[in-house]
Amino acid sequence: MRDTVFFLGKGGVGKTTLSSAFALALARRGSRVLVVSLDPAHNLGDALQLKLNGEPKKVEPMLDALEVDLAYWVDRYLEESKEELKANYSYNTALNLDSFFSILKYSPGTEEYAVLWAIEDIRRRLAPKYDFVVFDTPPTALTLRFLSMPAISGLWVAELTKLRERILRDRQTIVRLNPQSPVAESCVDKEDDKVYGKLKNIRTRLTSLETLFAKQSFMSVIVNPDELSVSEAIRIKDELSRLGIMLSAVCLNKKGLSQADWTLASEFNQLPLFAYDFSPNGIHTREDLVHIGIEPFIDYFLGKRKVKNE
Ligand SMILES: Nc1ncnc2c1ncn2[C@@H]1O[C@H](COP(=O)(O)OP(=O)(O)O)[C@@H](O)[C@H]1O
Ligand SMILES: [Mg+2]
Question: Which ligand is nearest to the CA of 8?
């Protein structure tokens, strides 16, 4: 069941605007909705005219919103990794963990992991209280990186698991040949092995995020009537399909903004298309958001859900 919605697209196309409008309209139809900003440069609160933080805040009776505190999730991820290393390698005092982790904070991949664990937390702890969770996403580069993280890390973890299995098998062989061997003191069974258990646990977590993105999410890409936003949408579509994630809909936002020659690429022919006119006076209030013309999209989305449930 696709009860999670992502709005993707180039910066400025209207991800924050349409995710807010979609969440508002869905909530006004009677669903319990949580709208979440994953963009480190948050402006969901501006769109909804409410100061937001990392925990859900009531926007309207059926709608809550939050802005993920990425710095908190980076620190939490590093802190947890540090504690784990300390617990497993307590004998290794030569390694200065604190300075190692202060470098890791800025290393590639850290931000993506932080986004992933934030999504996992929302999914486990908050999503059960809502019918739908709507995600307003960061710029494309970061979005594609965190969406691909479960699959990429999954490969790594699978290889590490194989390696660990081999180590345990070798230990068993040694102990069989020489029961007096000091190896007999260490763990030889998968079931008792802490490292194997940890790998299994991380694999389960990554698989469940992969399933969330590929099977439980309604992915909408937004374009404007310009070539650049369409090229970026094609890139998103291609990258996602490599990950086994299919787009569910295309939104053409700011229709009428430009008179320049423009066509939606044939790549999107098979997908339902929803258009929103450019509002020359801008979008300032929540009422402006619900009048953007999101209703057909909501009808389609809810209709799909009914068919899926039957
Ligand atoms: N249909 C529209 N008509 C007029 N202005 C729009 C429309 N959609 C978005 N905007 C404006 O465009 C700007 C960028 O939109 P935003 O939703 O913040 O984009 P993104 O989140 O993709 O970066 C904002 O000022 C927003 O109010
Ligand atoms: Mg935005």
Answer: 1
